Amino acid sequence: MMQWREGVVVEEIREWPGSVEYAVRLASADDTGSEVRCLAYTAMVGRPEPGDRVILNATALLKGLGTGGLAFIVAIPDRLPQDAPDSPGHIVKARYTPQQQMFLAVDEQDSIHHDVLIDATSLDLMPVVVADLHSALPALIAGVRLARPEARVAYVMTDGGALPIAFSRAVAGLKEAGWIAATLTVGQAFGGDFEAVSLHSGLLAARHVVDADVTIVIQGPGNVGTGTPWGYSGVAAAEALHATHVLGGTSIAALRVSGGDPRPRHRGISHHSTTAYGKALLSPAILPVLAGGGELAALVRRQAIDLAAHSRADLDVVEIGTEGVIEALRQSPVKLSTMGRGLEEDLAAFVVSAVAGVCAAQRISER
To answer: Please, are residues 166 and 18 in contact by the beta-carbon 8 Å criterion?
Structure first.
């Protein structure tokens, strides 16, 4: 159930493309005077100003969640935004919710790219890297750029986490730095440079519209997990690899690894990866691991070999050297953070993601 609050905007805290964060003073009887952090998606509700009365969805904030643990501005009831100009497109996302949006999808009939995608049937061996956590994105791109600095990288955001891509400060920073050539939001996710109805269309658009050399597929921020073998949103990584295989791409399964997570199920190779790639995946994929390294790297290699041996899919474990990787990660234009841990607190998480990016870049010439 949603928990509603009313408040008054006090001040703007920060902004990035599509999003503005505010301090809002609550006006509800039980919490009058309390200030909370709130996010407004400007394309959906307009741009609040100090003194505006706002209606909030405070559910995640009151629940004390991590990712998304803030209130969201639903409306500025005394100053509604003007209607957007008429435009083609009839694809609705966040469908049948009060916040549903209508977009021109890259693959629909009114799109200038429709004729291209009618005939597009193959990714032409384009490397597609699939990962579980959104936090892997900058590390993956750092690896691609280490091996091929000129590579065009597309990011396909699926709908397992946040639906609005504007929620991700990482994506905003990576685009501003030129590390991402274009973003594509698929399924119920929205707000990318291109919208696509399905993951398959999004991948084809990345190849034939964006002209990407490498495409990265990850859900938005806010991975959902229950501590059960199958109850986590990252299991959809297997589905992304299936789509890549069906469309003739080069499938690269990025491992979720940690040396700093206190939960045993995520130490070394996470159970999220062993489930997605060992049980849910049915198509071939490359499984990059670190060459050399210390005790944790050796453990991950052993775990990866065991995962490949027992997987229902044909997994090719490939060792990738780490020369220059840590320095490449330190050059990231956005903060590296996974589950609240930075580069120094969980080095393995980012290095393993980066070598998956290196692996993808090494396969660009095979197209």
So the answer is: yes
Domain that includes residue 20, residue range: 4-75
Please compute the mean of the pLDDT values over residues 289-311 and round it to a whole number. Answer: 93
The residues that bridge with 292 in the sheet, in sequence order, are none
Q: Same structural domain for residues 118 and 241?
A: yes
Identify the three-state secondary structure at position 42. Answer: helix
Q: Quote the CA–CA distance of 36 and 267 in Å, as a whole number.
A: 35
Structure tokens at 166: 């504007």
Tell whether 182 is covered by a domain: yes
- Of 92, 67, 76, 85, the residue nearest 42 (C-alpha): 76
Biggest CA–CA distance in the chain, Å, is 64
Q: How many CA atoms lie within 13 A of 323 on its CB side?
A: 2
Distance CA 202, CA 44 (A): 23
Q: Are residues 196 and 261 in the same domain?
A: yes
Classify residue 251: in a domain, yes or no: yes
- Domain assignment present for residue 26? The answer is yes
User: For 195-220, what is each residue's pLDDT tens digit?
Assistant: 999 999 999 999 999 999 999 999 99
- Note whether 268 and 331 are same-domain residues: yes
**Predicted TM-score of the model (pTM):** 0.94
Q: Say whether 319 sits in a helix, a strand or coil.
A: strand
Q: Give the separation between CA 358 and CA 335, rounded to whole angstroms.
A: 20
Residue tagged 């609705």 (tokens): 92
Structural domains of the chain, count: 2
Cα–Cα distance, 236 to 218 (Å, whole number): 9
Q: Is 287 helix (H, G, I), strand (E, B) or coil?
A: strand
Count other Cβ atoms within 10 Å, centred on residue 264: 8
Q: How many angstroms from the chain centroid is the CA of residue 334?
A: 14
Element (H, E) at 242: helix 237-246
Band of pLDDT at residue 29, cut at 50, 70 and 90: low
Question: DSSP letters of 138-158?
Answer: HHHHHHHHHH-TT--EEEEEE
